[in-house]
Design goal:
globular; 11 strands; 4-stranded mixed β-sheet; alpha+beta
């Protein structure tokens, strides 16, 4: 059978301060790269990598004093794929959407593919050893009622992440968790899967600096 060479695409990531626009050295992580390519790039403000066009990659950026940045992407069919990460300096009340931490359907069991993102959250807490966070669980449910089952599931999912951080060595005094059910849905009446997925989330709120 004929063989086909999968083309490489150039990925460039640049990290800046959201308020000043200046480039800032940060720890950049790119998961799902080919085995021969490092996944961690410490204390840099820009990297340029060759990536395969058919994969989905997860980017995490950690910098002391700034919110954790997480996103997933699939390279386009361009010769250069650029991602500009504008890190926000942390303030009390800021929230981090843990978009890459997923659960089994209608359960609080964290999917194995979420483990790298959990590790980044642990590194974020270690890098910023002065902060306290509350893990907050949310579900996508019927907007008119916040059923007990919704509250129970959202709390169980938040607790699962809380327990994972405890197991990773983060001090209990820096952590708390709460489940809100469907009380804080982003879209009260979702009309597509994207909106439903946005409602079905876990966030980390900065409660103390």
């Amino acid at each position: 059978e004929p063989s086909y060479e999968i083309p490489l695409r150039k990925l460039q990531i640049t990290v800046t301060d959201k308020e000043t626009g200046e480039r800032i050295p940060s720890n950049i992580f790119v998961d799902n790269l080919p085995d021969s390519v490092p996944s961690k790039y410490p204390a840099v403000s820009q990297i340029s990598l060759d990536v395969l066009s058919y994969r989905t990659y997860d980017i995490n950026v950690i910098k002391k004093g700034y919110l954790l940045h997480s996103e997933s992407f699939i390279p386009k069919n361009d010769s250069l794929y650029t991602i500009d990460v504008a890190l926000k300096p942390m303030s009390k009340g800021d929230k981090i959407n843990l978009v890459n931490i997923k659960f089994e359907s209608d359960k609080a069991k964290i999917l194995p593919k979420s483990l790298p993102s959990l590790e980044k959250l642990k590194e974020f807490m270690t890098e910023n050893d002065n902060i306290h966070i509350e893990i907050q669980g949310h579900v996508n449910g019927e907007a008119k009622r916040n059923k007990r089952s919704y509250r129970k599931l959202s709390e169980a999912r938040a607790e699962a992440i809380y327990q994972s951080l405890l197991d990773a060595g983060i001090e209990k005094s820096r952590l708390s968790y709460e489940g809100f059910g469907n009380a804080k849905m982003i879209y009260r009446n979702p009309v597509n899967n994207r909106q439903a997925e946005a409602n079905r989330r876990v966030e980390a709120e900065i409660t103390k600096l």
